[in-house]
Specification:
Blueprint (H helix, E strand, L loop, with lengths): L1 H24 L4 H21 L2 E4 L2 E3 L3
Antiparallel strand pairs: 1-2
Length: 64
C-alpha cells in the first residue's frame, strides 16, 4: 500500500524536475517546450491511470 503511494509521489517529483530542466534549457523555443511538456504530462497521466493503489481488500485508489 505505502510503496504504491511512494511510487506515484516519486513519479510526480520526477515530472516537476523534468519540467524545470526543460524550462531552463528550452525557454527560447516555446513550441518545442510545449510539445515535450505535453508528452511528459500525458505519459505521467497514462502511467498513473494504469497503476491503481490497493489500500486493503476492496479499497482501491484508481487515478482514472
Amino acid at each position: 500500500m505505502l510503496l504504491g503511494l511512494i511510487h506515484n509521489i516519486a513519479l510526480l517529483i520526477a515530472l516537476s524536475v523534468g519540467l524545470h530542466i526543460l524550462a531552463r534549457r528550452y525557454a527560447h523555443r516555446v513550441t518545442y517546450y510545449h510539445l515535450v511538456a505535453g508528452l511528459l504530462f500525458g505519459s505521467v497521466g497514462v502511467i498513473g491511470m494504469i497503476t491503481p493503489v490497493v489500500f486493503a481488500p476492496g479499497v482501491i485508489y484508481d487515478g482514472r
